[in-house]
Amino acid sequence: MAQPFVKKDDDLDEEEEYSPFHGIEKGAVLQEARVFHDPQLDARRCSQVITKLLYLLNQGETFTKVEATEVFFAVTKLFQSKDTVLRRMVYLMIKELSPSADEVIIVTSSLMKDMNSKIDMYRANAIRVLCRIIDGTLLTQIERYLKQAIVDKNPVVASGALVSGVHLLQTNPEIVKRWSNEVQEAVQSRAALVQFHALALLHQIRQNDRLAVSKLVTSLTKGSVRSPLAQCLLIRYTNQVIRESSSNTQAGERPFFDYLESCLRHKAEMVVFEAARAITEFNGVTSRELTPAITVLQLFLSSSKPVLRSIATLAITTLLKTGNESSVDRLMKQITNFMSDIADEFKIVVVEAIRSLCLKFPLKYRSLMNFLSNILREEGGFDYKKAIVDSIVILIRDIPDAKEIGLFHLCEFIEDCEFTYLSTQILHFLGNEGPKTSDPSKYIRYIYNRVILENATVRACAVSTLAKFGAMVDSLKPRIFVLLRRCLFDGDDEVRDRATLYLNTLGSDASVGGTDEDVKDFLFGPLDVPLANLETSLQNYEASDVPFDIYSVPREVKSQPLAEKKAPGKKTAGLGAPPSGPTSVVDAYEKLLSSIPEFSSFGKLFKSSSPVELTEAETEYSVNAVKHIFDGHVVFQYNCTNTIPEQLLEMVNVFVDGSEAEDFSEVVSKPLRTLPYDSPGQTFVAFEKPEGVPATGKFSNLLKFVVKEVDPATGEAEEDGVEDEYQLEDLEIVSADYMLKVGVSNFKNAWESMDPDNERIDEYGLGVKESLAETVTAVIDILGMQPCEGTEVVPSNSKSHTCLLSGIFVGNVKVLVRVSFGIDGSKQVAMRLAVRSEDPEISEKIHEIVAEG
Known about the structure:
CATH topology of the domain at 591-733: Immunoglobulin-like
Number of helices: 34
Largest sheet: 6 strands, antiparallel
CATH superfamily of the domain at 591-733: Coatomer, gamma subunit, appendage domain
Strand content: 5-15%
Radius of gyration: 34 Å
CATH class of the domain at 591-733: Mainly Beta
């Protein structure tokens, strides 16, 4: 069996932990598996070998078909052992190997024998394994045994059968639904875990029948559920029934609310918390309904148990985000008392809630900002402090009245800040915002203290911040000069260089920029070359008599790193954080395209696609394409990389054949002059199309270039080259390319605010489909719109579903779509499509896109 992690050497200064599986190889373990064939089985050794095999499988190690089959047949021989521990390992191994239909027959008889064994542990595990590996045909043969197991007196066996039913419901729902009577009997079990699993299975069986779910909740809320886990499930199902019935009941009426309120007095803390959370999540929750939930959460906050305080923190912060001003002060007092007792991860949740609250109630900024500044001075890790600083920065940007008090709190923080990153970012922000305040001079002391007391990185940043004050505030310029001259004697060359540069820039004998506008642009303007390209050029520069020329740095943006900036989660951009993915990508592409004269007349860039690979991985030349959509033009950006060190490519161009795209006509082709090894470059081809029309088509691509051999010793390329070409994959323009994914926070309000006269509705028969989920995904992909409110997720076994979509169509036309799907027993899918937009013609076009798709 696997041993727990232990210390390798207690005498080491650094306590290194190691795994007993460290360094094991598949081949060696497969050799060890031969012990399964020994006439006299060593149960302990066999268990250890199975543990190693399971470890390899769970680490992602792949077994070939032959290897898996050999291991499977070897493991089946271990059924002859009577060792209980080994038998449990055998069950686990068979389940993990997932044998094929032909192999399942080999172990079926052994597992069925164990399923009727007198040893309860064998019975429970055999049921679990059988249900994971058999198909529907065999399931009907053992259905009788499974139904008996569900009502078995032994809770381990009953629980195993119920959990197996949950898994089988996904593949054989018709068979599992026949077990309703037995499952309902199991719900009345005295065993806590059996009752929990039985309730979960019973709800899944009835989940598509709202009336049946409502009846289930009605019968169980009368007090027959004893298990705390089952009680938590029942609270969730009750909450679901309340939400679904809220639209059909009169204002102020909530069915089952008395039950939820009674759960607040339950002896199990998990039940109390679940009930409190359910109440706080009600839409339009009243003060009367909220009071008992807040009371129990406040008791949790004062509890001596850290876990309860942390859990209550999450609930209280939810209330902070959704509450009103009158309840905030009371909650803030509670939070202040326990902030020092909870972990940083929960503190971050509180900080984010305070930020949301302040943006919701701007007039409360002073007290909330003071709260943030107080906790900023307390002990905490980097992530926690960064969350606080980010929150203060966002409040300063969004609430003008909070600027001066917020900057003052940040200045006080950097006086005793241990994190270099935060100090530099605050100084940068202070340099941008401080000069615009009513009294900029009061910040100079805090900035210059950093020059005296901090490390070189912070000192250099402080020098730049001082220069910004000197550039923006003329009255401070003489004092700034004095401070910058003192920095000329600093021990760090970066600090001295910056001081020298800014003295020359701001001084009367300026050598860098002449006018005030030039100076401000130099200090505050963005760098006009990509940082990655500048870094590469500096690394490749060799010191010589020729100085480094910044104009030699390529201005082209590498598309792949840009694509990687897209963040998977949605976070508020705080201090030092770039804007969320798509915005930064579009901005960078727009800047790149606007710098090319041939494209300057195309107007504003509407959308840029993700890179589309046009070559296979690890080929001689790597090419991907980005589709840039304008109102009347489409520009293909081909990102090319030469992966052969001994070659230099020149006059790189992509010849595009648009014979299958009749609505497009080529207007501009911009070749790439040179393409050295492993240095990405771009070539462009632009097409004109009818303005505002979602024209589609397929384009074939042929890469043409001149190849020059490179001498590995000198790095020099030969003068003569050879023309060559390379066939690329086709590139398509589809309807979704003309739609920008933009979500809305409240779809119902957005829908009702659209002019109903612009609504177009039609119904479509989509034929036979595997599932509703597949159909919903396909429609979303065709339209290229943003799903709202989580409606892209289709509940399992659902027979109907409504999906809400939002987007902006080319020409900056807002579009909202409500799609309703239904599927019958023969898997025929019908769809009702309702479209509202700012332009009725666009609503028609959306229907045309769906009809053609």
